[in-house]
Known about the structure:
The structure holds two protein chains of two kinds. Chain A is an all-beta fold. In chain A, 0% of the residues lie in helices and 52% in strands. In chain A, the strands form two sheets. In chain A, strands 2, 4, 5, 6, 9, 10 and 11 form a seven-stranded mixed sheet that branches. A four-stranded antiparallel sheet of chain A has the order 1-3-8-7, with no helix packed on it. In chain A, 35% of the residues are buried. Chain B is an all-beta fold.
Amino acid sequence: DAGITQSPRYKITETGRQVTLMCHQTWSHSYMFWYRQDLGHGLRLIYYSAAADITDKGEVPDGYVVSRSKTENFPLTLESATRSQTSVYFCASLSSGNEQYFGPGTRLTVT
Amino acid sequence: GQQVMQIPQYQHVQEGEDFTTYCNSSTTLSNIQWYKQRPGGHPVFLIQLVKSGEVKKQKRLTFQFGEAKKNSSLHITATQTTDVGTYFCAGSPRAGGTSYGKLTFGQGTILTVHP
Lengths: 111, 115
């Protein structure tokens, strides 16, 4: 099915572990984004990508790494998870009409 | 950096009452977008405003973009229980450069509607 998907939908991990959140879109949109959502902070941009192999930092990039070897995939890696990274993570892609389409989100808990 | 402030943070209304949320940017915007997020869901695009002073309507929803392109509002007339959710504004800085596609989101307004 066309759209944007994220996996896993829920993840519990321990402090210090590496975690990778996956994002896949079928529209071949050039721009993709990673946000985290925390109560009181709205959606904050972590990283974004303008195309395959082109990524840049957003507002809160520390502790995160991204890659984009293919247009359709934009994984987000927490290299050494901390409790402050407990959050809901949304991936999004940008349509030609300048609308951002969001995935269903990944709820991550770091214990 | 650019900041987008949104008020109120919470709004509780009785079904049938009107609702308004306000958005203010620290810098002039190229455009402003509004998104709705249902409880447990993901943000969904509602509308984009581009022109100074622009007003757009979607059924009971009215969106405005300020003359200075630094503020915006969303007004819902006669709320219904289906309006429940969080409404976000999101501003895009002036066009060009490396800012293309990037949005700065407000903190959101959580709307609850009592039947």
